[in-house]
Structures are given as structure tokens and as C-alpha cells.
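Example record for the data management plan.
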Amino acid sequence: MARPTSFRLPEALLARLEEESRTTAMPVAALVRTMLDEGLTTRRFPGVVYRDGPAGRRAGLVGGPDLWEIVRDLRHAPGQGMDRVEQLAAEIALTADRVRLALDFYAAQPEEIDRRITADDEAAAHARRSIDHRERLLSQ
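Corresponding structural encoding:
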């Protein structure tokens, strides 16, 4: 449950928040919650950034893939333990440390990553159904 909190912010910072709120069409309170959450998370996991995309904001490696993609790929990677991490890292051209960073993030925020993986699975299933419908229509 949320609890009311009061902060005193400098005018210049408030102006920047209000401008960002207008630009993103996000209420200031929601923007502050999002920025605080993401800021605390990226502070805890250096090397992780949040970025915008068609499916909304998501966590990714600086200069690398989204974290949910790494976790998804690791689930399907052969091997066990750190051998699995090393093999995936080599396969996707990352260091094992960066793959472990994604895993550490997942251990702390599994719901966020699982939600992205589920959404991707659903989008892929929808695309397959659409292709099947199109192909059936074309083959008649």
C-alpha cells in the first residue's frame, strides 16, 4: 500500500519534472515513482539501464540486450551452472560477468523479467496464429 510522502524539491528540478511529465504524458507523481524505482534499481545493479520501446520501459544491459532476453536464452541454454552461463555468454558475445549481472537482477526482480518473457511468448504465439490464418486463406 502506498503511503503519502512529502519532499521539498528545488524549483529547477520541479520544472524539469513537470516538463518530463508533459513530454511523456505521465502524471508527475507516477513519473517520480518510476524514476525513484529505476534509480534505486540501477544504483544497486551498475551496468543496468532502463530504456523505452514499443512495449514500454524495460531493463537492459548498457550497450547490450534487454535482461529478459538474456534470462530467456539462459533458460534454453544447454549445460548446468556456470558452464551454462559461460556458454551463453560466448554465444551472445557478452562476458560471463554481464550474464551474471542479468541473473542477479532476475533473482531480485523475477516478476519484472517473467512478465516480459510471458508477453514475448504471447506475442510470438499471436504472430504464429496470424501467419497460419493467412496461409490457410492463401491456400484455399
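Summary line stored alongside the record: Helices lie at 11-24, 28-44, 67-76, 81-91, 96-108, 110-138.
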